[in-house]
Description:
Layout: E1 2-8, H1 12-23, E2 27-34, H2 41-54, E3 62-64, H3 78-81, H4 103-116, E4 122-125, H5 130-138, H6 140-143, E5 148-152, H7 167-171, H8 173-186, E6 190-193, H9 195-198, E7 202-203, H10 205-214, H11 217-230, E8 238-239, H12 242-250, E9 255-264, E10 275-277, E11 296-304, H13 306-313
Calcium ion binds near residues 38, 127 and 242.
Amino acid sequence: TIPLVLDVDTGVDDACALLLAALHPGLDLRAVTCVGGNAPLADVVRNTLTVLETAGRADVPVGVGVARPLLEEPVDARHVHGSDGMADLGMPAPTLAPDPRSAVDLLREVADAAAAEGDPVTLVPLAPMTNVAIFARLHPASFARLGRIVFMGGGADVSNATAAAEFNVFHDPEATAIVLDACATLGVPVTMYGLDVFYDPKVTDADVTALRAVDTPVARLAADLISFHHRRFANDGATIGDAGAVASLLLPQALETRSLPVRVELTGSWTRGRTIVDRRDWSGDMEHDPHGLAPAQVDVTLACDGPALAGLWL
Ligand code: BDR
Ligand code: CA
């Protein structure tokens, strides 16, 4: 089984990802950390606890993290995820409470413990990377003990929050830049599961009907979440979104990745938050990159087998 930690801004599709991480026998969910993003932090924490409670995973500690990006005011996405951040399902308030440890302390403890056991943890940020950046800066030795990072964010060719940028990176570009730099300097392998593949793993109407027929609390929640997404991603099905990044851990052969230099645009007036993926051919005479700092080398997901990944979620 794969030991992992999710960092979330739950979030309809973060909820889908939490269900998979909490319940798949191939995954060992050690902790969940919350950050402001799709919804304000208090909503994110409540939604996350609701999902874990529904999944029967009261044992998973939930760490409360940072409410706002490093530099800017938060701009949430409740217009996408519902006024409560999770599809306005009217579910009862969770009885579970968050862990007394902060998100950053939890990340440090889980990273250290897993490394000491000889099976380093995979960190899966599915949200703006504010918590992860602060973790990297505050506890670099523990950050270096991560097995790898697989983050949902960015894109080589596709954007959503603006014409140039993906939501998670746009929400906190400095945090993403810090995390990529920390991965490069501290030697943590990093995979970008970005918008080039995000919309490909899809659930159809027939899948939702089958889910509803299962008629357990988890299946009902899964069906309700994905049905809410259907309103936006109609036609040939609804994306499982962030859950695809979790599914990819179980089925790496479903991804086509290339190791490429990636930078985060921090200053462009229309391009702030864009991930600049360098696909130039460096074998020729392009000896010099005129930009100072070396870019991070990232395993960029350029294509995926959507049905295979969606099949893991169902
Ligand atoms: C990302 O933004 C959020 O709205 C989703 O939860 C996902 O993590 C997609 O750009
Ligand atoms: Ca998310």
